[in-house]
């Protein structure tokens, strides 16, 4: 334990991230019970990958001198200098295109969008210049780039700053779309994304940045990497499968606790990857539990849940004992007023209710709302 | 070179030709310097333009002629193939603009990068692409430069420093500045030429990328191939200021006679030197396309046939070089005609070979989606019928 602490602090200077040693927790797999915030996890992943490969660079608004709009890139400018940590003007189309061009020429840029809402200004480059290039050139032009930043709803930021882009990006062949939940996910998936030779859209969550999660010694190692395209079963169960990603994994776990007290054993799957989608894990789980609830923050129509439900109906129809259920954000732009905002995103009770429906324990109220 | 001087020279030469024929063989391979004045001077914006006197050699002029004749033939043959429905979808032809491609190549190396939009066949050839790769790609065959999966707008030759081939108007400009960014990052003393049209010159992302290129002193040369029409819209109808070489504002610019291969060479050499020391520069090539925007555009609804034939008569890039070759007695009419015949022959042979090239294997539908597919599943139109594991 102390050996690991020494390794982090020793290489001169203030560590950009810290580790808090706490008493061991019940569900932690880590010996000694260390915790880390998602922010620090991301920072450490960036730091390690930049240290290991000189062609990795970070560019985006306020990533350098401001230390990152959400402090994810704190300390990196000091450590790696302005050649590798680049503050860009507020011109997403321009700097995203430039980053893709740099990737064409062999660099490995990490592009930060202050939020993915702003990625819409650059979406042509993400889709047409990055995602499709390897295919159109039949392998000549590969694009080892990562587009990362906070995605989805924050708190009270209104309609233009709250959209979830998982479904949009994940529909595009040629992209990989990753969605970390906890600190281990954040470290392992970001490192995997940076090392991956293809364009990766890395969807973080602003509200998770400050949350602390236990982290294992293995996850703290600089060679740690999570496989792309593999979901994780966060909690095993036998009555209903709840599939979620990002912040909703936390909600799903809370729902599972509540359901357990009522005698329903929920299996919670943390997707980790929207594209590739781990259909095998989801199907295997539903074939065991016979019931499915998908949870996402994004808009319902053509969302991630829609794809998962279609996939299950196609592959595991005979195993379903109840219709598939989707819990999603409301089908409206995000309102500002606190009470309306609360209604516009999934709450734990929504997940519990849907799970109970699949178990024939509750009847929906609003049939013709 | 002024036309009157040329006529006198040719008149003179006609008498001398038989007597000095033995000399011609020596001069054709000559690498001794010939200095030619461009017919139009360069105009600078926030920069002193280079001299109108361009150094060249007999060898270089011959290579210009040969290369442009090949490019011209290739594009005209593509026109026929398209009408025969062997080429499908989009086909944007470059005939008329060849001087930009050959002049640029003469000034740079294959370590410098070029990126352009969809009018890319001749640039591809200039970067070392072959006729077979070109025609095969146009017809969607296996031997195409993108193995048939790209098409006319997506030619690439990475080992030749050619990064495509882009279908979205203006997107290639930030991409090109990104190539320059990587060149600077790697300290490799090379530059990137980013080509775009007068239509793309109004794109916002151009100004975004130019701002960053100037801010960070990137070795990026933005080349506006101004053929005066953005599809069917004349430049004066699309741009408040069609002085594209000035549109960089704080970035210097040069206006160049884009139908003169030597002027293009001079400008590109000048620009490369500038970009390596001082960051971005804009080159506006005053050029012209004989074909319409694409094969679906006759090209005569928004411009007169007189205009097109006028440019062909007065400013054709191949004719320019022909006149120089004749005037300097580097080759005679017959030799030049033979070169054009040879070009035609090479093109015809390449087309015949390309026609024999098969369509890609059905399994190619699923290749190159990713570099590393992790064996992930992909689907055909009926996912219960066709699935594949991505390699």
- The topology string of helices and strands of chain A comes to HEEHEHEHEHHEHEHEEHEEHEEHEHEHH
Distance between the termini of chain B: 58 Å
CATH topology of chain B: Rossmann fold
Q: By helix and strand content of chain A, what is the structural category?
A: alpha/beta
Average residue-wise pLDDT of chain A = 92
Strand arrangement, major sheet of chain B: 2-9-10-6-5-4
Number of strands of chain A: 15
Any idea of the CATH class of chain B? Alpha Beta
Biggest sheet statistics of chain A: 7 strands, mixed
What is Rg of chain B? Answer: 22 Å
In short:
With 369 residues, chain A is of the alpha/beta class.
Give me the secondary-structure topology.
The complex is a heterodimer of chains A (369) and B (391).
Chain A: H1 2-9, E1 20-21, E2 34-37, H2 38-52, E3 56-60, H3 76-80, E4 85-87, H4 92-104, E5 108-112, H5 123-131, H6 133-136, E6 146-150, H7 166-170, E7 176-178, H8 183-195, E8 200-204, E9 212-215, H9 217-220, E10 232-235, E11 240-244, H10 247-261, E12 266-270, E13 273-275, H11 279-289, E14 292-295, H12 304-316, E15 325-327, H13 338-344, H14 348-358
Parallel strand pairs in A: 3-4, 3-5, 5-6, 6-8, 7-8, 11-12, 11-14, 14-15
Antiparallel strand pairs in A: 1-2, 2-9, 7-13, 10-12
Chain B: H1 3-16, H2 21-28, E1 33-37, E2 43-45, E3 53-57, H3 58-83, H4 98-107, E4 113-115, H5 121-126, H6 131-138, H7 172-185, E5 192-197, H8 204-215, E6 220-226, E7 229-230, E8 233-234, H9 235-238, E9 253-257, H10 261-278, E10 281-286, H11 305-315, H12 317-327, H13 333-356, E11 377-379, E12 387-389
Parallel strand pairs in B: 4-5, 5-6, 6-10, 9-10
Antiparallel strand pairs in B: 1-3, 2-9, 7-8, 11-12
Helix pairs in contact in B: 1-12, 3-4, 3-12, 3-13, 4-10, 6-13, 7-8
Structure commentary:
The complex is a heterodimer of chains A (369) and B (391). With 369 residues, chain A is of the alpha/beta class. Chain A has two domains: 2-15 and 35-220, Rossmann fold (3-Layer(aba) Sandwich); 232-358, 3-Layer(aba) Sandwich (Rossmann fold), CATH 3.40.50.920. Chain A is 36% helix and 16% strand. Chain A contains 14 helices and 15 strands. In chain A, the strands form three sheets. A seven-stranded mixed sheet of chain A has the order 4-3-5-6-8-7-13, with helices on both faces. A five-stranded mixed sheet of chain A has the order 10-12-11-14-15, sandwiched between helices. The longest helix of chain A is centred in the N-terminal third of the chain and has 15 residues, at 38-52. The radius of gyration of chain A is 21 Å and the shape is globular. Residues 1-30 of chain A have low confidence and may be disordered. Helices cover 42% and strands 13% of the residues of chain B. Chain B is α/β, with parallel strands linked by helices and 391 residues long. Chain B is globular. In chain B, the strands form four sheets. In chain B, strands 2-9-10-6-5-4 form a six-stranded mixed sheet, sandwiched between helices. In chain B, strands 1-3 form a two-stranded antiparallel ribbon. In chain B, strand 7 (229-230) and strand 8 (233-234) form a beta hairpin. In chain B, helix 6 packs across helix 13 (333-356) and helix 7 runs parallel beside helix 8. Chain B has one domain (2-360): Thiamin diphosphate (ThDP)-binding fold, Pyr/PP domains (Rossmann fold). At the A-B interface, helix 4, helix 5 and helix 6 of A face helix 7 and helix 8 of B.
């Amino acid at each position: 334990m102390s050996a690991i602490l020494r390794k982090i602090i020793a290489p001169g200077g203030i560590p950009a991230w810290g580790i808090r040693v706490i008493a061991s927790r019940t569900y932690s797999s880590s010996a000694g019970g260390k915790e880390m915030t998602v922010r620090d996890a991301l920072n450490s992943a960036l730091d390690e990958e930049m240290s290991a490969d000189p062609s990795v660079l970070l560019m985006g608004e306020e990533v350098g001198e401001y230390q990152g709009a959400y402090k994810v890139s704190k300390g990196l400018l000091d450590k790696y200098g302005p050649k590798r940590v680049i503050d860009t003007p507020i011109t997403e189309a321009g700097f995203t295109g430039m980053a893709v061009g740099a990737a064409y020429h062999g660099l490995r840029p990490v592009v930060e969008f202050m939020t993915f809402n702003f990625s819409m200004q650059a979406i042509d480059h993400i889709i047409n210049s990055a995602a499709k290039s390897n295919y159109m050139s039949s392998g000549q032009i590969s694009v080892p780039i990562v587009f990362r930043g906070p995605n989805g709803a924050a708190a009270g930021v209104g309609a233009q700053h709250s959209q979830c882009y998982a479904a949009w990006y994940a529909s595009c062949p040629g992209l990989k779309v990753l969605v970390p939940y906890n600190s281990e996910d954040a470290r392992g998936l970001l490192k995997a994304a940076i090392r991956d030779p293809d364009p990766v859209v890395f969807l973080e969550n602003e509200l998770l940045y400050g949350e602390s999660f236990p982290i294992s010694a293995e996850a703290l190692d600089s060679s740690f990497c999570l496989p792309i395209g593999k979901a994780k079963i966060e909690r095993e169960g036998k009555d209903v499968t709840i599939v979620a990603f990002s912040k909703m994994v936390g909600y799903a776990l809370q729902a599972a606790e509540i359901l357990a007290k009522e005698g329903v054993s929920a299996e919670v799957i943390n997707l980790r990857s929207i594209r590739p989608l781990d259909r095998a894990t989801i199907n295997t789980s539903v074939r065991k539990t016979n019931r499915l609830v998908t949870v996402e923050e994004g808009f319902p129509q053509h969302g991630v849940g829609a794809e998962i439900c279609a996939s299950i109906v196609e592959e595991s129809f005979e195993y379903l004992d109840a219709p598939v259920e989707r819990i999603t954000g409301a089908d409206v732009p995000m309102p500002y007023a606190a009470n309306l905002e609360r209604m516009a995103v999934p709450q734990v009770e929504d997940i519990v209710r849907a799970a109970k429906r699949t178990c024939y324990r509750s009847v929906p109220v609003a049939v013709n709302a | 070179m002024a036309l009157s001087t040329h006529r006198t020279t040719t008149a003179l030469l006609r008498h001398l030709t038989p007597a000095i024929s033995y000399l011609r063989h020596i001069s054709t391979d000559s690498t001794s310097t010939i200095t030619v004045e461009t017919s139009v001077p360069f105009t600078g914006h926030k920069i002193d333009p280079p001299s109108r006197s361009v150094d060249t050699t007999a060898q270089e002029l011959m290579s210009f002629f040969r290369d442009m004749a090949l490019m011209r033939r290739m594009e005209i043959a593509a026109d026929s193939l398209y009408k025969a429905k062997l080429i499908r979808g989009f086909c944007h032809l470059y005939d008329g603009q060849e001087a930009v491609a050959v002049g640029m190549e003469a000034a740079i190396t294959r370590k410098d990068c070029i990126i352009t939009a969809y009018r890319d066949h001749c640039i591809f050839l200039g970067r070392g692409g072959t006729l077979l790769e070109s025609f095969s790609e146009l017809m969607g065959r296996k031997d195409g430069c993108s193995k048939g999966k790209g098409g006319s707008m997506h030619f690439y030759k990475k080992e030749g420093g050619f990064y495509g081939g882009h279908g979205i108007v203006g997107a290639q400009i930030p991409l090109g500045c990104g190539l320059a960014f990587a060149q600077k990052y790697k300290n490799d003393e090379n530059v990137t030429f980013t080509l775009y049209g007068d239509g793309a010159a109004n794109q916002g992302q151009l100004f975004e990328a130019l701002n960053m290129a100037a801010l960070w002193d990137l070795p990026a040369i933005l080349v506006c191939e101004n053929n005066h029409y953005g599809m069917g819209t004349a430049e004066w109808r699309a741009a408040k200021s069609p002085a594209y070489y000035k549109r960089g504002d704080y970035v210097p610019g040069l206006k160049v006679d884009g139908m003169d291969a030597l002027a293009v060479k001079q400008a590109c050499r000048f620009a490369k030197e500038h970009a390596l020391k001082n960051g971005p520069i804009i080159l506006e090539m005053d050029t012209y396309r004989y074909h319409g925007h694409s094969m679906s555009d006759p090209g005569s609804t928004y411009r007169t046939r007189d205009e097109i034939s006028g440019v062909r008569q007065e400013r054709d890039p191949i004719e320019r070089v022909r006149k120089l070759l004749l005037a300097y007695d580097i080759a005679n009419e017959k030799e030049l005609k033979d070169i054009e015949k040879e070009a035609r022959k090479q093109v015809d042979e390449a087309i015949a070979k390309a026609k024999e090239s098969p369509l890609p294997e059905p399994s190619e539908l699923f290749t190159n989606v990713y570099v590393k597919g992790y064996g992930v599943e992909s689907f055909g139109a009926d996912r219960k019928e066709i699935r594949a594991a991505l390699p």
